[in-house]
């Protein structure tokens, strides 16, 4: 079982790091399908997000790909709202939240797939603090509620705001560990953590995410990254929809 989980986490972290997002969104349902309780699966997925994307961020910082200033308002707001989201998960129907999230994923995936930069339009380099704070708050809230990290929410919204896809992947890889870790601590306080599985999954996550980040920056163009993000988001929407049936 642990060997299987290692390779699942390795592959998932590699694929999802191409878009700068955490793999908890796919790891959590896999863990649940393997018989791990929901309240134990969520903190494992969130901690994997934290550890794996820290490795990706180290690579981004080393190669000067990360805009720290742009990430600060998203980090602060998502960190705080993820705690609230994790706490509120005890009172809100998971089915209702999943339905809303599936709709958002379908919209976001379609944005990445069909949104095209207009001719002569340039990617923005300014920092709209209020919009980024609201974005981080929304991402953190859903991250805490679902136990999946907020990368899949942050990425499409930043694309809509006009930022460069590679800048987006670096920002999300930097932000998601903070919101994931705050939600992880909240779930840990409310339940139990299987530390053996958590360590194995997280170790695989660090390797997979580091390799995925290096591959993405060396071999992929912005429009290719957008298509990868679109496929990831749409697949997640389908996965969650099937779970509701």
List keywords for this structure.
245 residues, mainly alpha, 80% helix
Protein described:
With 245 residues, the protein is mainly α. The protein has one domain. The protein is built from ten helices and no strands. The protein has helices spanning 2-17, 24-33, 38-62, 68-88, 94-114, 129-146, 151-160, 165-190, 195-219, 222-244. The radius of gyration is 16 Å and the shape is globular. The mean pLDDT is 80.
Topology:
Blueprint: H1 2-17, H2 24-33, H3 38-62, H4 68-88, H5 94-114, H6 129-146, H7 151-160, H8 165-190, H9 195-219, H10 222-244
Helix pairs in contact: 1-9, 2-3, 3-8, 3-9, 4-6, 4-8, 5-7, 5-10, 6-7, 7-8
Number of strands: 0
- Summing up helix and strand content along with how strands pair, one would put the structural category as mainly alpha
Compressed to H and E, one letter per element, the order equals HHHHHHHHHH
Question: Structurally, how many domains make up the residues?
Answer: 1
Number of helical segments with 4 or more residues: 10
Strand content: under 5%
Radius of gyration: 16 Å
The helix content is over 70%
Low-confidence spans: none
What's the overall geometry?
Answer: globular
Main sheet record: none
Query: What is the terminal separation in angstroms?
Result: 27 Å
Mean pLDDT: 80
């Amino acid at each position: 079982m642990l060997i299987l989980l290692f390779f699942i986490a390795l592959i998932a972290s590699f694929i999802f790091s191409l878009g700068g997002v955490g793999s908890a969104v796919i790891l959590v349902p896999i863990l649940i399908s393997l018989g791990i309780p929901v309240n134990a699966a969520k903190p494992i997925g969130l901690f994997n997000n934290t550890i794996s994307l820290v490795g990706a961020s180290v690579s981004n910082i080393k190669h000067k790909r990360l805009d720290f200033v742009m990430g600060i308002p998203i980090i602060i707001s998502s960190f705080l709202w993820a705690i609230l989201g994790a706490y509120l998960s005890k009172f809100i129907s998971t089915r209702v939240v999943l339905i809303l999230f599936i709709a958002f994923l379908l919209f976001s995936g379609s944005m990445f797939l069909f949104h095209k930069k207009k001719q002569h339009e340039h990617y923005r380099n300014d920092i709209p603090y209020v919009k980024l704070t609201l974005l981080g708050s929304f991402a953190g809230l859903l991250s805490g509620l679902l136990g999946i990290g907020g990368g899949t929410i942050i990425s499409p919204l930043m694309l809509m705001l006009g930022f460069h896809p590679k800048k987006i992947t670096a920002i999300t890889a930097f932000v998601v560990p903070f919101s994931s870790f705050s939600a992880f601590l909240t779930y840990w306080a409310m339940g139990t953590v299987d530390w053996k599985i958590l360590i194995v999954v997280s170790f695989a996550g660090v390797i997979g995410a580091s390799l995925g980040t290096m591959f993405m920056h060396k071999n992929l163009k912005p429009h290719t990254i957008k298509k990868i993000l679109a496929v990831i988001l749409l697949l997640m929407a389908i996965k969650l929809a099937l779970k509701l049936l």
